[in-house]
Specification:
The chain is mainly alpha-helical. The protein contains seven helices and no strands. It folds into two domains: 80 residues, no CATH class; 69 residues, no CATH class.
């Protein structure tokens, strides 16, 4: 009888943990859905309010979205490069392999921002000066592609 009672207690603990875990997962997904819906509705403040708790818990999608919101500086969110870099750094790289030693985790995202300013994208106009600024940040952070692009731009500028 005692073993049966212990087994029942163990089963009850497992059931409670499963219910709590599932509830937290559903809540996290709901929070993400509300935040991304606000993002699509161009309500940046609400998007930040809903996504920041997830971002602080390590959700890379939320971190990247918040970083871009600060890059673009619209929908009620002020443009703030320092905040954008902070969130990009927390997000780290999206690669499946480990980050390179000595490379700033934000460098890949900074390169992405540099490209967005160079080519234009929804929400950002083509701005060569901003592109150059973000490219320099990525190169300073150790991104080899950004360094090569800066070298190519310098070479191209010297041939004129």
């Amino acid at each position: 009888m005692r073993k049966l009672l212990q087994l029942f207690r163990l089963a009850l603990i497992v059931a409670v943990l499963l219910v709590v875990g599932t509830s937290l997962h559903i809540l996290k997904n709901y929070q993400m859905m509300v935040g991304m819906s606000a993002e699509k509705e161009e309500n940046g403040i609400t998007a930040l309010e809903k996504l920041k708790p997830l971002a602080y818990l390590g959700n890379k999608i939320a971190q990247r979205t918040i970083g871009w919101r600060y890059v673009e500086g619209k929908y009620g969110v002020p443009k703030n490069d320092a905040h954008a870099i902070y969130w990009f750094r927390r997000c780290g790289s999206w690669s499946l392999v480990d980050d390179e030693d000595g490379v700033d985790p934000a460098a890949l995202h900074e390169l992405s921002v540099a490209r967005a300013y160079a080519e234009g994208r929804p929400g950002l106009k083509i701005d060569p000066a901003e592109s150059e600024k973000w490219l320099r940040l990525a190169a300073k952070g150790g991104n080899k592609e950004a360094a090569a692009m800066l070298a190519a731009r310098a070479e191209k500028g010297n041939t004129r």
